[in-house]
């Protein structure tokens, strides 16, 4: 064995010894099945037609809440997701409502917070139409628009639903060992 080959094997041996002790970490955001990660939320669409109260109960039965929209980036992510996965859906319930409020202030049932970001559809809000909020995709000449905007509806009306859950954050750790590969996800709280 030549001196160059010996040095090459020595470097290779040291490199492999170092790989043995590598600990790599990556933050991973996941959703429980059958929810899908959409922006910063885990969402699940249901094509069941329910009134607002039944829709809220349906989401809660899956350890989730009806959808809330806090900002423009969330609305864009929802619009993109719905247009890809459910392109012919015209309307669906959100958790927004004005129950017991005479000042026409809307709140997100899912968070208890006042709804500050309210991207209204044309001609909305119409408080006399009801107490609940849905995301509505207007039609133009029989063609469904690709953008959902808020609309006030009677809570007893029927619509499809989108439920949301908070994503699970975990750390993914990879440990390389001489004869195996192990991976573990550690849930962060």
UniProtKB/TrEMBL annotation:
Cited Gene3D superfamilies: Mannose-Binding Protein A, subunit A
Domain of life: Eukaryota
Signal peptide region: 1-17
Domain (C-type lectin): residue spans on this chain: 38-164
Keywords of this entry: Signal
CDD domains in the cross-refs: CLECT
Keyword Signal: yes
Pfam family, one: Lectin_C
Record-given protein name: GH19783
Source organism per UniProt: Drosophila grimshawi
Lineage: Eukaryota, Metazoa, Ecdysozoa, Arthropoda, Hexapoda
């Amino acid at each position: 064995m030549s001196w160059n080959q010996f040095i090459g094997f020595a470097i290779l041996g040291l490199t492999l010894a170092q790989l043995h002790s590598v600990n790599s970490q990556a933050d991973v955001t996941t959703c429980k099945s059958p929810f899908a990660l959409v922006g910063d939320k885990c969402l699940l669409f249901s094509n069941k037609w329910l009134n607002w109260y039944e829709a809220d109960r349906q989401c809660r039965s899956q350890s989730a809440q009806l959808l809330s929209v806090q900002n423009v980036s969330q609305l864009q992510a929802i619009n993109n997701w719905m247009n890809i996965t459910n392109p012919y859906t015209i309307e669906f319930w959100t958790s927004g409502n004005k129950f017991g409020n005479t000042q026409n202030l809307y709140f997100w049932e899912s968070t208890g917070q006042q709804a500050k970001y309210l991207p209204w559809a044309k001609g909305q809000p119409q408080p006399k139409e009801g107490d609940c909020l849905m995301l509505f995709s207007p039609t133009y000449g029989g063609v469904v628009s690709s953008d959902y905007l808020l609309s006030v509806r009677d809570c007893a009306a029927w619509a499809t639903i989108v439920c949301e859950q908070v994503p699970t954050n975990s750390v993914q750790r990879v440990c390389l060992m001489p004869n195996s590969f192990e991976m573990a996800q550690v849930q962060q709280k």
